[in-house]
Automatic annotation (TrEMBL):
Protein name: DUF2207 domain-containing protein
Keyword list, A-Z: Membrane, Transmembrane, Transmembrane helix
Transmembrane annotation, as ranges: 5-21, 27-48
Transmembrane as UniProt keyword: yes
Protein species of origin: Microbacterium lacus
Length: 54
């Protein structure tokens, strides 16, 4: 009975860790997409406005 309880606890902990990692990775993916879009907008603004260096 104790072995089954330990196995269930270990599986629950592993699933909780994977669930947390999935949530964190999803959040980081959205942050990366937002930063990428901002970088693309800044790049396009610089290309369109042109550099005025002499």
């Amino acid at each position: 009975m104790n072995l089954a309880l330990i196995i269930i606890i270990v599986i629950a902990v592993i699933l909780a860790i994977f669930g947390g990692l999935n949530s964190a990775l999803s959040w980081l993916l959205w942050v990366a997409l937002i930063v990428g879009v901002i970088a693309l907008i800044v790049f396009l603004f610089r290309v369109i406005s042109g550099s005025r260096r002499t």
